[in-house]
Each structure stands twice: as structure tokens, then as C-alpha cells.
């Protein structure tokens, strides 16, 4: 039975990877020490998800409460499973550019040094394993904000004649822009992953994601756009829109679609590869459009305010081009669009946090259908 090591295994993409590869028959080794609660507070803790994984998969899921910066601990895990390791999925990170400015040392050591620890452990103990890294579109800094954009009624849009009209591809320059400190630490990790592929011939890849989302997301104000927006809509918690008239555009990819892309790469890996990955033109929305959809799904109004001060390094418009990945892996396809994603997030949040109200609502719906 092949083994997959998944860092950040209780987070959004990590836990989706656990589910996916457990069903593929892998032995799962999860590494996660709930740093998300340290970054964003107790409400963002992923312990509930960790416990769910343990209960669901039993002996097929082995959890290690380990910091990825702890070189000795990480190397001990890799040494224990060594040649049985077929795949490493590295999702653990400090994920917020706002938070990074508060504590640059912690941000950089987690994102950059932690990635180096994992790459070197893989090189020493399982050099033939596939190494998949969840990078970010923030490696491009604020360069996307220099694109020619038009203000429409509910969103910003790129000029129809521009080469990036179907999405930003990997040709965009990563130099001479404001990245945020988070973007810089992820650039360092991204380049390390590429270099271990090109220099040592390891099967490595950086997936430069747009907004990664789904029902397993523990959304917080500083990270987890759709999950946090839906949470505020459901709970009537005040929400703040930061700049750009609320018309900033993001593409959003469901965690399952992303992990399915991982699986396609694993089946036919390459060395030192990079891919932009996101919802592309298939699944995207502006902030105002997302609010309208959340209100419609939840059946209540969001309590929000607006400030003209946008976040430093924030993108006005970002839609990923996935053409390169699809050209290499033409059998990969999307299963979720933005409406499907928000409906799943709503159902998951209500059933997890308000189980009695959720079950009563399901019973009422069923009763109405049978009348």
C-alpha cells in the first residue's frame, strides 16, 4: 500500500487530500499542529476536522502533531516510512498577507524554511516520490493590477482584446512588484520546489492557486474569502469590504477539483513544473456578486460596511488560466462552479454549527415535497 504524506492535513486542501487519497487506497500520514488557530483565533481552529479524519479512517490515517519547521521531527517521520512514500502533498502554510506583516519571521520560517525541510527530507528518504506544493497567485505580486481593467456594474473586467482575457497564465513576470511579505515567503518556497525538481531531478510541482475554497474551510477574516463571507451572512456578523468598490474579482476552485488535479499530476509527473490553477472563467465572482449569491442561498441579508482602504498587494482582478495544465492533463475537468461551491459551504456550515436547526429544516423540506 503506497503512503502519502500530507502537511496541513486538517486544513481545507489537506483534508480534501486525505479523503481523496484514502479512497484511492493510500496509507495516509497527516502532519498538522493547528497553527491556523494561532494565526486567526480559536474560531478558525481545524481540530474538529483532525478529529473527524481520525474517527473516519482509523488505522489508515496516522496523525502527527508536528511543526513542519521542526527538522528532526519531520525527518524522523520520513525515515519511518521511507521508500513506502509515493507522494507528498504540502499544503501547510501561513496563508495571509495581512498576518505576515505582523510577524515576518514566523511567516517566512513556516512558508520558506518549512518547505525546505520537507524537500530535503524527501530527497534523503524518498527521492522518487512525487512532491506537490500548493503555491499561490501572490507570487506575481500586484502586477495583475497593472492590467487594463474596465469598471462594470458589479465587477472589474479586463479589456476584451487583452491576451489574458481567458485568464492569467504562467508567463506573467514575478519581478518588480509589491508581493506582500506572505507573497515573498511563498515565492521562496515556490522556487525551492522548482529547483529541487530541476537540480536534483525530483518530481516536483508548484500549483499557483487562486482562491481555494470548499465546505471544509475554517474561514476567518484574514483568510478564506467565501467561507468567511457565508459565515457572516448566516450569523449576521458584520463584514467589511476593503476597497475597489467591492468589485474586485477572484476565481474560486473547489478543493475537490484542485486535489483531483493533484491526482492527475501524480499519475504522470514532471520535474520542477509550475501551473496556475483556479476557477478560471468557469468559476469566478466579484465581491458584490458573491454577497448577492450568499444572501440568496442563506435567505438573509449580509450586514456589511465598506472602506476605501484596500489591502496592500490585493488584486483588483485575478482569473487564472488553466490552459497549460489542461494541455498536459486533458482528462482533468471541473466538477464545481461558484454556485455549487457556495451551496456546499452553506450546507456544511449550518449542519456543523447549527445541527438542530439544519435537521428541522431538512424535515420541513421533505414534508413539503411529500405533500
Q: Can you tell me about this structure?
A:
By secondary structure, this protein is an alpha/beta fold. The chain has one domain: NAD(P)-binding Rossmann-like Domain (Rossmann fold), CATH 3.40.50.720. The chain is built from 13 helices and 15 strands. It has helices at 12-23, 35-40, 47-57, 71-81, 97-102, 104-125, 180-200, 225-235, 255-267, 287-298, 323-328, 338-353, 355-370; strands at 3-7, 27-31, 61-64, 85-90, 130-136, 149-151, 156-158, 203-209, 211-213, 239-242, 249-254, 273-277, 284-286, 304-307, 317-318. The protein has a 7-stranded parallel sheet, sandwiched between helices. The protein starts with a strand and ends with a helix.
Keywords, please?
single chain, alpha/beta, Rossmann fold, seven-stranded parallel beta sheet, 13 helices, 18% strand, disordered C terminus
CATH architecture verdict: 3-Layer(aba) Sandwich
What does the largest sheet look like? 7 strands, parallel
Q: Write down the domain tally.
A: 1
By DSSP, the count of extended strands is: 15
Form type: globular
Output the number of helix runs: 13
- The residue-averaged pLDDT reads 92
Query: Strand order, biggest sheet?
Result: 3-2-1-4-5-8-12
Structural class: alpha/beta
Which runs of at least 5 residues are low in confidence (pLDDT < 50)? Answer: 356-371
Assembly state (oligomeric): single chain
CATH topology: Rossmann fold
Order of helices and strands: EHEHHEHEHHEEEHEEHEEHEEHEEHHH
